[in-house]
Amino acid sequence: MTDSHFGDQLALPGLPKARVSKQRRQDGVAIANTNPVVSVLPDLTALHLDRPFDYLVPEELDTQIQPGVRVSVRFGGRTVDATVLSRSEESDFEGNLQPIRRLISDVVIAPPSTLTLCRAVADYYATNMAEVLGAAIPPRHARTEKAVLAHVTGANTEPKQAPPDTSHALWADYHGGTAFLTRLAAGQLLRAVWTVLPNAEHPTAPWVRGIVSAIRTVTDLGRGALVVLPDDRDVNRLLAGLHHAGLSEWSLDDPTGDVVRLQASQGPAARYGAYLAATLGQARIVIGTRASAYAPVADLGLMVCWDDADDSHIAERHPRTSTVEILRLRSELESVSLLVAGVDRSLRVQQLIESGWARGVEADRALTRRFAPRVRVITEADREQAGGEGHTRLPPQVWRVLREGLDRGPVLVQVPRAGYIPALACAGCRQQAHCRNCGGPLQLTQGTVRHQQIAAGSAQCGWCGTLGGNWRCPDCGQTHLRSIRIGSARTAEELGRAFPRTPVKLSGLGTASGVIDEVSERRCLVVATPGAEPYARGGYTAAAILDADVMTSLPMMNAEADALHRWFMAAHLVRPAHTGGNVAIVGQGATAALQSLVRWDPAGFASRELLERHEAGLPPAYRIASVTGDSLAVAELLRTVDFDDDVLVLGPAPLPSRDENPRPGTQAERIPQEQTMQPQVRALIKVPAVKSGYLAATLKSALGSASAARRLDHIRVELDPTRL
């Protein structure tokens, strides 16, 4: 490292860089003779330190220090870990360089392709490369590393029996499907978007069979494959499909396996061992959740992203990266084929198709109608026709669908909110009830409600947990409450009373049973929140989607698209219409989304919505950056940036208050109030999509300057914010 950590020495433009004589010894340490200078990236989150720093290679570590290994260095008066980027003969710095303190491991944990990808992701999201590396590479586990290396040394080199062939007939149902496999088998570079047909009756999900078929096509060429999925349930389903195709999972007990699994839920040791096995080329196939998008795969030939519209593909912590964007960048950097698959189609993927970057693979309308269930929207006219009962939460038409479905097997009920009664209002004036302590929403977490009026003493704040006690409405003085939102637990209770001889299963986070993976073909009612719907053997006979207006009425730009995605994911689990599969949706949701679900036309909705976004200047047609923080800091940052004329700055404006049931990501952008006395504001910076790189580079430069001046403590910047 340099004697001063404030930056490189300045040089006049046009003059050649100074040649630095080699240091043979430093602090009594002998220095390597060949390529003695090593550039490292310290594990520091300060944005102005997002650059390489030069050190010297001790002679005793000469053969072990190489790009991608982890070392310890002295930086700013303390010892920090760092990743080696490169080695060279000389440094641009004219002073004395410090030697590497310690080699953490001689394993190349970050190959050159991974370093290049992490740098590209950091630049795309205007963030620090060290943060991206931290998300990409699991923390080291020394004991596991030793065990994996021992198995690599003694690996079985005998040829393995070739797995049985997998049928590719499924792809023939899609326009361009057969051509996709043919070109993939020829080793050509492909970028495709596959809209998967529903086929709930088949014992193996269509997306599993299609992805396994594509993987086998690539591995038959001796190349590797990477699949990124939204959650552990999908990872397990795909792993079962690969096992059925004759591909086994790698483990320390079976180091000859073909598939490495990378999941955050594995635990530190298992996850690091799996990542290390992939890095060392011990398996040709890597499957996993979001972070596996960075996984090194030997001779990578295909990357697959399943269900890209799922929220789990967006990182929960800064930088809030997207799986699709990471794989898109990787496809361009490494010239690797990419397949994005899903039941519906996100707007970003539709944009990639319309720009010519990717091509769609989808079935014709006749085949879609054959496999899709019959979807019926319960309209206001239907409610009026049913009389007084038609204006209840479950009108008679829905009860009919449930009864007829239960006569033939399992029935799914999707409820948008978890809990018992997640929102309460004054029984008199109908104003939503808030906690007197923190202003949060009052809710009922458990109990049995048999009357419309609820005692305030049984309510509890959803934010701070304070009991309602002697709550009194500030507007009308009423002391009783009534429900305005019904959760999944309350819905299951009501259905259990309506069908006393039918098992009712509750699936969702925070429930006693948790998220259920699968149910049998026997008669039962399954009440689930979005994303927690279990698979049913042979498919559900019917489904009811309740409170559709709750999801589409959220004050967010993507509310309609997100709601449609959740409806499609529930409806595709239902049997086809020709075998009696029915879906009833209740609530005055957005018309365009409901029509798309009825016609089973996700591509049409995405195309129309993207066109409207182009006309309105909204993402993904435009790229947006959100700058959040105290008012003075945000104003100062915007003042120091000289944007081009076609850059539009909106705000700063006060941050919206927290909603009654905050979703992931809505509170992360708010600076804790105890850190600043300034009011919290947010500014939005908008540019055309073609200037995406300009926006990221300009913001990163400004943030780096603010970081060096220690003005970044009260500012947070997010590119492509999902909650607007």
Walk me through this protein's architecture.
The chain is an alpha/beta fold and about 725 residues long. It has four domains: about 1-105, no CATH class; about 170-365, Rossmann fold (3-Layer(aba) Sandwich), CATH 3.40.50.300; about 375-420 and about 490-600, 3-Layer(aba) Sandwich (Rossmann fold), CATH 3.40.50; about 620-720, no CATH class. It is about 30% helix and about 20% strand. It has 19 helices and 31 strands. The chain has a seven-stranded parallel β-sheet, with helices on both faces. It has a six-stranded parallel β-sheet with strand order 15-27-26-16-24-22, with helices on both faces. The chain is globular, with a radius of gyration of 28 Å.
Which radius of gyration do the C-alpha atoms yield? 28 Å
Task: Give me the side-by-side strand order of the main sheet.
Answer: 10-11-9-12-13-8-14
What does the largest sheet look like? 7 strands, parallel
CATH structural architecture of the largest domain? 3-Layer(aba) Sandwich
What fraction of residues sit in β-strands? 15-25%
Can you identify the CATH superfamily of the largest domain?
Answer: P-loop containing nucleotide triphosphate hydrolases
The level of helicity is: 25-40%
CATH topology name of the largest domain, in short, is Rossmann fold
Oligomer: single chain
Note the gap between the termini.
43 Å
Structural class: alpha/beta
What secondary-structure arrangement, pairings included, does this model have?
Elements: E1 25-26, E2 29-30, E3 37-42, E4 53-56, E5 70-75, E6 78-88, E7 102-105, H1 112-124, H2 129-136, H3 142-153, H4 177-185, E8 191-195, H5 206-219, E9 224-228, H6 232-244, E10 259-262, H7 268-279, E11 285-288, E12 300-306, H8 323-334, E13 337-342, H9 347-354, E14 359-361, H10 365-371, E15 374-378, H11 380-385, H12 396-406, E16 411-414, E17 423-426, E18 442-443, E19 454-455, E20 460-461, E21 480-485, H13 488-498, E22 504-507, E23 518-519, E24 525-528, E25 535-536, E26 542-545, H14 548-552, H15 559-571, E27 582-586, H16 591-599, H17 602-616, E28 622-630, H18 631-640, E29 648-654, E30 680-688, H19 692-708, E31 715-719
Parallel strand pairs: 8-13, 8-14, 9-11, 9-12, 10-11, 12-13, 15-27, 16-24, 16-26, 22-24, 23-25, 26-27
Antiparallel strand pairs: 1-2, 3-4, 3-6, 5-6, 5-7, 17-21, 18-20, 19-21, 28-30, 28-31, 29-30
